[in-house]
Amino acid sequence: MDDDVLRRVSPSRRPVPASRRVAAQPRAVVVAFCLASLLALAAGLASAQERRPYFELSAGFKTGDFGTPTRSDLLYFAPTFGYVALRYDYSVTVPYLSLTAPTAGQSTTQSGVGDVVARGGRELAAGTSWSLYGALAVKLPTADEARGLGTGETDLGAFATLGRDFGSTRLSLLAGTIKTGDPPGQALSDLRLYGIGLAGWAGATRLYGSIEGRTATVPGAHNPLEVNVGAVHRLSARYWLKSAAFTGLNDGGPRYGASLGFVYWF
Q: Which residue from 125, 155, 192, 219 has the fewest beta carbons nearer than 10 Å?
């Protein structure tokens, strides 16, 4: 995930019955993954200084209770096809998910294609040392909701990232909102997102760290807050490697997780 990839801890809400939280958990975990995809893509690969298509293949995992009484584990593979120009970019991601979560008192694993994420963004304004980037994204309901791999509904997102250079270090601030679709019999909350991050080059490697937060998907759950660190390493003009690790700062976020990615520029 890139350096502009950023995602409130509010007073406690009225508790939700445990049975309802457990039933909602698999969907909450998968929605959290889809949001991570949206935000990761919202940055694009804006280091490119020319018009170029690319292919990215990322794999990773996250685990935690996500504010519920039980633990879930998510593995994913996420191929992405995209195009980057100096002032705009767009991409489509088709993830494959494997979700292990408690069901009827025992642990079960469900696997399959996840929800497709499509997005586009562009530079809205820029100065000599700052820029404002905006993006729109849609999560399409291509996953099997009966197996807990998606909500069966379309989500729409809008994001803005303000970047400011201080010497060789870049400070990024993100704000965003996601309008979530409500599955039958379940009301998911629309989301508000924010984050702050720092990034800088160390030779051919871009290092970054960020603190990211959002309101909870499931009403009554803790608002997730997590810290992320990662790197993007340029092997050559055509081949890049990416890695990231993250951990939750409260009960709403993941316990921990990591990802690896490979980028090929055409």
A: 125
Q: How far apart are the first and last CA of the chain?
A: 20
Q: Above pLDDT 70, what percent of the chain?
A: 79
For 193, half-sphere exposure in the C-beta direction (CA atoms, 13 angstrom radius) is: 29
Residue identified by tokens 């191929």 is: 79
Helix (H) or strand (E) holding 20: helix 18-42
Kindly list the domain boundaries of the chain, sorted by start residue: 18-265
Amino acid symbol at 227: V
Mean pLDDT score, 215-225: 80
Token look-up 């939700």 returns 16
**41: phi then psi, degrees, rounded to nearest 5:** -75, -25
CATH number of 18-265: 2.40.128.130
| φ and ψ of 243, to 5 deg | -150, 155
pTM of the model: 0.81
As given in the structure block, the two tokens for residue 14 are 């009225």
State how far the Cα of 45 lies from the Cα of 31, in Å rounded to an integer: 23
Kindly list the distances between the CA atom of residue 127 and the CA atoms of 85, 105, 197, 227, in Å, as whole numbers in the listed order.
Answer: 18, 57, 19, 29
Residues in the chain: 266
pLDDT at site 16? 37
